[in-house]
Task: structure prediction
Amino acid sequence: MTLVELIRPALTAGRRLAPLVVAAATVSLGPAGATAADGAPVGRSYVVMMTQPQIASGTARHLVPPLVDALDRAGLKNAKGPTAEWVVSLEKSADDGTWLGSGESRRWRHTATVSVAFAPNRGFPRAPDVPTFTVDARVVTADPDRPDEFRCLVDLAVKTAMSRWRPAGRIEVRGTECERGE
Result:
């Protein structure tokens, strides 16, 4: 059974996931052979890593399923245990907002960001010297908590990572195709 298969019923039932995530993370001792220099991890195994605050805030319930779907569509293989070659992490953020435009067209807008990071699995906790490649997908929106926009941003971040793969670093992409209007 995969970690995602374990998480989905717990999310649906509203149970606390912290013990599950901690247990999964402490046994995650992946193979030492995966490196970012080998190219995009298409066809390689992965595990999603999230923190307890992310889970408590509801991020897992809203973004882990779309992340797993996007990774599967990109050709990565969901790990069947703690031997994943890659660790994929997810961060979600939004600013406090600002006024954009002038006159009648003036609107309050937020910049929402989804960051998807890929790192070779070297066990838990992740060592600071492990190379990580991150894609930040951003959208300007009236509502920073729109699930449809965030699903689109997750998909965009994964697609961008696979098409513009680097051994390490961070790139930004504007998610204009994810903007859903008012």
